[in-house]
Structure formats: C-alpha cells, structure tokens
Amino acid sequence: MAGDWIRTVTAQTPTNIAVIKYWGKRDENLILPVNDSISVTLDPAHLCTTTTVAVSPGFDQDRMWLNGKEISLSGGRYQNCLREIRARAAEVEDKERGIKIAKDDWQKLHVHIASYNNFPTAAGLASSAAGFACLVFALAKLMNAKEDHSQLSAIARQGSGSACRSLYGGFVKWIMGKEENGSDSLAVQLVDEKHWDDLVIIIAVVSSRQKETSSTTGMRDTVETSLLLQHRAKEVVPKRVVKMEDAIQKHDFASFAQLTCADSNQFHAVCLDTCPPIFYMNDTSHRIISCVEKWNRSEETPQVAYTFDAGPNAVLIARNRKTAALLLQRLLYFFPPSSDTDMSSYVLGDKSILKDAGIQGINDVEALPPPPEIKDNVPPPRNRGEVSYFICTRPGRGPVLLSDESLALLDPSTGLPK
Ligand code: ADE
C-alpha cells in the first residue's frame, strides 16, 4: 500500500419519482418501509447526481463536499453506508501505477467524496435519493465490492429509503421485505427505460415560502397516529402494486394514470390523517390537479397522470410527446412566468417539447387561448409566478461510471475539490 498515490472513481446516478408511494417506516434505523413502492427513474441528462470518491494513504480522515461546500459525514446515514461498503471491500490492484490495496487495508484507509446535483438541492426533487445511490455505487466500485445492484440498493436504502430505487433505470420496485435485519428490503428492476419510452415527464417546481415537515418527522408522526396508514399499507398498496406492475408491463396508460393519481392522493390523505396534520400540497398544487382532472375527464381516456411527493411540486406523466406538448400549453396558460423571467430559464430539460407546443417566446405564452375543456364564459385566471420553472424529462437509465477524467469532481493529484 506504500507510496503517495490517489485512486479515484466517478459515477452518475439518476433520481426517481414514486408512482406507488413509500410513506412510513417499520424500522427507523435500518429504514425499512411498511409497504412496497414503485418508481420511475428520471433521465439523468436532466436530473442526476455526479459523485467522485477518492482513496489515498495520505488522507487522514473521511471528508465530503456537497455542491462545493464541505459537509459533516458524522450523521448515522452516511456512517451506515460507509460501514456497509467497507465491510464488503475487496483487494484492488493497479499494476500500471504500482497500487495494491489489500482487503483489510480498507478498514484503515480514508476516503474523500465530492458530490454535485445538476438540479437545485433544496427544491424538493429527491436529491438525497440520487445522492445516496451515487455515493454507494461509487464507493462500491472504488473498493471493488462485488455486490450486484439489488444488494447495493439495500445499502443505499440505509442512507435514504428512496435511494434504493435509484440503482436501476426504467420502472423499479422496492420490495419491503420481511427480515428484521433488512437484508431482503431491496430494489428490483421491473422494466428498463426502453420498455415504455413514449412517456414524457414534466415537473412543475412550485414556488413555496413555507418550510415543509421533513419526511423523517412526517413519517414518524404518521406511523404513530394514522389508522388510515395501517389500512393503506395492509389492504390498499399490496393490490395496487400488482395492478401497477400489470399496467406497466402492458403499457396500459389508463390504468397507470388511475393508479398513480389515486396513490398520490391517498398519500396526501394519510398526511392529513396524521396528528398534527401535515400539508405538503398548496393551492398551486391543487390548481394543477384540477387542470389535469378536467382535461382527462373531457377526453375519452386519461392523457396525463400526476403525482406529488412530500412538497408542493407536481410530477406530470404524459402518455406521449403529442400529449406532453398539449399539457405544456395548458400549464403555460394557467401558470405563465412572472414578467422578469425569460422562457429559456422557465422551461428546462428537453426544450424540444416547447417547440412541439408551438411556443418560441413569451409572446406565444401570452397569446395562448384557454384550454377547450374550460367551458366558462369568462376566461379562467392565469396564475402568474406561482410556478418557479418546469423541467421536461423522460424515463431514464440507472447508474453509470464516468471514465472521462475531466468530469471528476476531485483533483487526482490533491484529492481535493477541483
Ligand atoms: N443530499 C442531497 N444531495 C446529496 C448528494 N448529492 N449526496 C449525498 N447526500 C445528498
């Protein structure tokens, strides 16, 4: 192990959004859920975490930088992930560079970690899911741990529950498991990202002044006080999971949309059933639901599904690109940008949907007619400034290693952030 070398690994991992929700733990330390959940992985081109991990005999402590700022690794969730990966570390040999790390050396060696989210960390977009999945995936590669993605998912789960679902692309199921030690609580891939590639996902990042109840606190209060959660976990979700898997396999968008919306609404009902009640959606979230519900009911079959996590942001899943363009027209009619915002910073991600919608600039937004399903004599109000921005994306792939040195976040000669 002698010498003054630094070995680095860089990985990129997507975030995910649950269509059958995870809410409530049966073990807080191991992060074991009270029900299975299902998610769709989002295209890392638009929402992902990049993490570089480095090891060197010259490092004297484990250190981490998140979005360029040093953070403490002393929290239990980071410590759980580091301990579990170290326990599975194997020998590493790089003959070219004269590096040899024996299995036992990993217990003494320290790591540096730098992580960057390509989307706002505090915007309620599940950054910890992508973050912990990326941390575990990158450390496993660095330490030559031989576990498969499902086994790694059980480790990422101990950092952040939803992180286990970010170890795969496409549609993913987190199986709650039965074991007390959590060994069978892990993620499996249902289908990869190519299986249902018509789907288009539009996220509305809703302006919010309010500090939300953290998921950890909210879940604990719900488990302690909500009878509706017991009913949901035992009676509702098991049946919904079977139906959702079937809808995904068959590309049955009508069932998929019905199940996704119903499950989001039940999750928020469970939050209201909590003592004290938890409010994650706001008036803007409710207006987005009304817009989608009215449109879906005016069509023969649902065009769009909505789902909301522990915050006011809407995740809208359109059946195809054509529907996504029609959805974007409706969203921009009801939620135009405030006067000082330009379109290029208002619609992010896959901007080609904006072109499909026939919108080039702010003047096209101002000229949009009310959607035809609104039959009022007076045009409905336009809620300017209620949405901070939209992100257009699609189902995406799972974690990858980045071999291009220029994408690493740590300097290979110092082990410090570039
Ligand atoms: N929490 C939010 N973003 C994160 C990241 N990239 N890594 C670890 N934890 C995070």
UniProtKB/TrEMBL annotation:
Keywords assigned: ATP-binding, Lipid biosynthesis, Lipid metabolism, Lyase, Nucleotide-binding, Peroxisome, Steroid biosynthesis, Steroid metabolism, Sterol biosynthesis, Sterol metabolism
Gene Ontology CC terms, in alphabetical order: cytosol; peroxisome
Biased composition (Pro residues): 368-382
Pfam families, per database record: MDD_C, MVD-like_N
NCBIfam families with a match to the protein in the record: mevDPdecarb
Functional description taken from the UniProt entry: Performs the first committed step in the biosynthesis of isoprene-containing compounds such as sterols and terpenoids.
UniProt-recorded name of the protein: Diphosphomevalonate decarboxylase
Keyword Nucleotide-binding: yes
Family under the similarity heading: Belongs to the diphosphomevalonate decarboxylase family.
GO biological process, one term: sterol biosynthetic process
